[in-house]
Specification:
Elements (H helix, E strand, L loop, with lengths): L14 E5 L2 E3 L2 E16 L6 E17 L4 H11 L6 E7 L8 E10 L14 E8 L1 E6 L3
Antiparallel strand pairs: 1-2, 1-5, 3-4, 4-7, 5-6, 6-7, 6-8
Length: 143
């Protein structure tokens, strides 16, 4: 690999998100990450603490401009009736000036909270939807 050119850094402006197949055009930011869980493993005659993977957990945040009641429309009726809706998310970032694009499918999504109502004088509205997930597929990654 040679020198990295600045114009090849991914620009998030070219990101998009689909929730249950619907493209959300009001997305401000999106983040999904996997945290690996480990147990400590001690070995005889070795002072180091080794690690053994025991699982993983997925979590993220989807932030949207307040154009629609995204969280309430997606969750309010179901949650009130004790139902967790089946939700999947596809995230994509495709800067035309970069080395390629990335696309990831996130499944078994459970939103941790949603906003019923929020406003502040002289402030544009936004909504943050933190979530967890139990499955993912890397569809396209930049090599």
């Amino acid at each position: 690999m040679g020198k990295v050119k600045s114009n090849k850094v991914i620009n998030g402006t070219f990101g998009a998100v689909w929730v249950n197949g619907e493209k959300w055009l009001d997305v401000e930011s999106f983040e999904a990450k996997v945290t690996i869980n480990y147990e400590d493993v001690n070995m005889a005659e070795d002072l180091a603490t080794h690690k053994k993977m025991t699982g993983w957990s997925g979590e993220g945040t989807l932030s949207v401009k307040k154009v629609y009641s995204r969280g309430a429309n997606l969750l309010a009726k179901s949650v009130k009736n004790g139902i967790v809706p089946d939700i999947s998310i596809v995230g994509k970032v495709a800067d035309p000036d970069a080395h390629g694009h990335e696309r990831v499918a996130i499944n078994e999504v459970t939103f941790n909270e949603f906003m019923l109502l929020k406003f502040e004088q002289k402030t544009l509205g936004s909504e943050e939807l933190p979530f967890a997930f139990a499955d993912y597929d890397e569809i396209d990654l930049i090599a």
